[in-house]
Design goal:
Carbamate kinase; 8 helices; binds uridine-5'-diphosphate
């Protein structure tokens, strides 16, 4: 039995690179599609938001002389590219998937509305909500918080390359310890970089719990959905 009825899965663009330095690693993309297929077969309604950091980030573009708003728009288009790639991999794996976009660009994807997303999920389609919030100066973490709240997801599953939230960066500090669960207030008080502040505050104010877990280890998504105690749960 799946632990949640409807989820918002946030995938990082950067993880899509796999071993590469840029772009999309087909192996990682295929693994993501298989993991999503596994939980789709459990009857879970799945909404997905994917980042674009493997292709372009507005903030780092601004550091190289790009106009910030244009750079952020490039970043949002990068999320559309990743979303199309993931939908293609899902369809190849036998899972119906649809890309919605926060910026009008038919026929690449239909313009996002909450009702279109919910209707498709109720019909068994995986819905990938691309182009972030559609606005510059936001991130896909904020986009996924927003979409998670809008589609009335039970939880946001934030797939990363670390296996949860630690007292300090485990890649830099060997004494860092992992939280099994933590409150939003404590995340904020400790200044833990789980998501950016805007995204964290939105989830806290709208009571959307998140589970941060290692999505790059195949099988973990199903483990989270089956109720195994992996990752870190953040709640009010
Ligand atoms: N972005 C934006 N508005 C949004 C979502 C994303 O402007 O609502 C841009 C922003 O420039 C960001 C880029 O898209 O740097 C890629 O998203 P993000 O860095 O969040 O991707 P990830 O780190 O998850 O790969």
């Amino acid at each position: 039995m799946a632990r949640f009825k409807r989820i918002l899965l946030k995938l990082s663009g950067e993880s899509l690179m796999g071993e590469k330095k840029y772009g999309i690693d087909e192996k990682r993309l295929g693994e993501y599609a298989q993991q999503i297929k596994e939980i789709h077969e459990m009857g879970v309604q799945i909404g997905i938001v994917i980042g674009g950091g493997n292709i372009f980030r507005g903030l780092s573009g601004a550091g190289k002389g790009f106009d910030r708003v244009k750079g952020d728009q490039m970043g949002m288009l990068a999320t559309v590219i990743n979303s199309l790639g993931l939908s293609s991999a899902l369809v190849a794996a036998g899972v119906k998937a649809r890309v919605l976009t926060a910026i009008r660009m038919e026929p690449i994807g239909e313009f996002y509305t909450k009702w279109k997303a919910i209707e498709a999920m109720e019909n068994g389609e995986v819905v990938i909500m691309s182009a972030g919030t559609g606005n510059p100066f936001f991130t896909t973490d904020t986009g996924s918080s927003l979409r998670g709240i809008e589609i009335e997801a039970d939880v946001m599953l934030k797939g990363t390359r670390v296996d949860g939230i630690y007292t300090a960066d485990p890649e830099k500090d060997p004494t860092a310890t992992k939280f099994d669960e933590i409150t939003y207030d404590e995340v904020l008080a400790r200044g833990l970089k789980v998501m950016d502040l805007t995204a964290t505050c939105m989830c806290k104010e709208n009571n959307l719990p998140i589970i941060v877990f290692d999505m790059d280890t195949v099988g973990n998504l199903k483990k989270v959905m089956s109720g195994e105690n992996i990752g870190t749960l953040v709640h009010n």
